[in-house]
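Sequence in, structure out.
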Amino acid sequence: MPPDPEETPPPTVTPSAVVPEIEERFVPQPTPTTPVPIPTPPRVDLDPLLMSLVAEVDPEGTGTAAISVAHDDRRFAVNGDRQVDSASSAKLYWAAAALGAAAEPAVLEPDALEVFGRSDNHAAGRLIDAAGGVDAVNAFTAALGLDDTYLSAWSYGTGRQASDRPERGLDNLTTTDDLVTFVSALADGDVLEEDRRARLLGWMTATPSDLASSPALDGLLVDALPTSVAAATAHKAGWLGPGCCSRIDHVVVAVGLVPLPDGTTARIAVAAQDTPDHGA
């Protein structure tokens, strides 16, 4: 007959059978936390500021004053599509075109350091030659969508002219919009292979970072910046003084990648042509 339930001994339970369950149940769990979003700086509309700067440089509107600024996905400009004589700022394009050709960066470097260090015109001509000539430079900038930039001629060392010069005109031209478009592509890695892009940025950073040490106003864009920021800015400028060229009275042009405290860069280009006080 079956045993009396009251006489059935209880099952034996060993500590090892319950301790892991108890331990698992009472293991301290991390307290969930809600991530605190990083405050986003307010977006500032730069257009009014840029318009006031342009009005200050060219109050009567007798010349061309232009400025273009890009940062993150924002872009601001006043007269950014107005063509001006590119002066020596275009040497940036020519160096990039030479790097984009077959020439080795190390071979280009002596001339490039002359171009960015003291804006040497003969060295700039050799960079045009290394790029494949004037037409090759124009093909390079056109492929990047810089439709308002054009190299007509460069005569230092030897004569160089664009094959379409009779149709396009006698001037070497650019816009602040094109300059900002180009340095933005350079900063974002959208032009040149990485080693060549880094080489060009290095040359630009070697440009004089104050007006006192710049024989050709190459420090124009960064002269008023803090010394450490100016030294880290990759930039290039150009200047043609009164009496230089029959078609214009004077021009100053500058472009650069200015590092900001948050690790991003502001892409800036400025130009003044035939304005009062030479764009000062």
